[in-house]
Task: structure prediction
Amino acid sequence: RFSGLPVKAVFTAVLVLSLVFPGCNVDSPSVPAPVDKTALQTALTAADTAKSGVTASADGTDVPTTAFWVTPAQMTTFNAAIAAAQTVYDNAGADQAAVNSAAATLGTATDAFTGQIKAGTKTGAKTALQTALAAANTAKRGVTASTNGTDVPTTAFWVTPAQLTAFDAAIAAAQVVYDNAGADQATVTSAAATLGTATDAFTGQRRAGTKTGGPYGISLNRTGIHTFPAAAPDYSAQNPLTVTITNTGNQATGLLTAALSGDNSSSFTLSTTSISNIAAGETGSFTVVPRTALAAGTYTATVTVSGENSITASFDVSFTVSPDSIYGINLDVSGTHTFPAAVAGYGTQDPLTVTVTNTGNRATGALTVALSGDNSSSFTRSPTSVSNIAVGGTGNFTVVPRTALAAGTYTATVTVRNAGNGITASFDVSFTV
Result:
């Protein structure tokens, strides 16, 4: 044996002995196979990625809803698992069995840590509620309370006293939430949605007055308020709104003037401010559009078409520039989805298709689809990530129980998120064998 000698020296010695002592049987030296640490390196990278952006918190109330947290104990346990795996990786003398075991142990720890991650509950932004309040107040502007509209001119709008009172109450309730510095994100979001529903209902209740006019009159194909789609801070030119003027009288209108008024009138432009004489029963048109490069905020103005012989008609326009880039998604499944129960020995179950809709003003970026909870391994999802979804676009994935599960009830949480953009949405699944 030639232990402890360099390989080249050993082979040289063997050759000399073979030549000098032809009958001598010298064992060939063995060279140990190299240890492959690729899987352990991959496990370490995955662990660091899983921990990125996750904060240690007692209960998540100090973590924004756009960020994620685990308890200090869970973070300490995971850090210890990473450190133990790193020690094996850095040990040049570690054998293949030790390396393989370290990779598997860290993988299990990473899966457990991922299942423990939760979104924070710290009060979030009130941008959507602020926008809903602005839209509600704009919708109410210029609307009169009337019993039947016979005391309201045909160029104005009315609702019943009860309808106006109900809408005022909805606005007041939303304002209380907006003014409450301690309101959590769920309460703020709910208030914005409730007021939006009330505004839609109120807009649908508005009617033009029926007070008798003279032989001159016009109507516009736009009434109440037209809200242009909200835009991000660096928005481009918006699509103009076409306004059609119809002569509802029995005389020609004469020359008509289109004008903008209100505090934000300079934030919009008209394609023309002068409309030629419109014969009885005929139409004319012009466009209105928000200007570009407006700062964050909500802009409103009144568009009025007027002429001689007491001809006038108007409506409002509104345009919101978001103060920040807004990222958000909505899942068409919420709460708990319960798969049909099955008996032992059941076959493949029908998968649940989940649609993800981008509700923000920015593309989502790549979204991960993760399962968590004690029974997360009892379900599968496909794919495990959803590609970047454009503004207003959708993506899909499926979730299904595994086969061959023992009798019992299995539950898990499905979470779709992009931690970098603060996107998260989830729901629960349940399956009973």
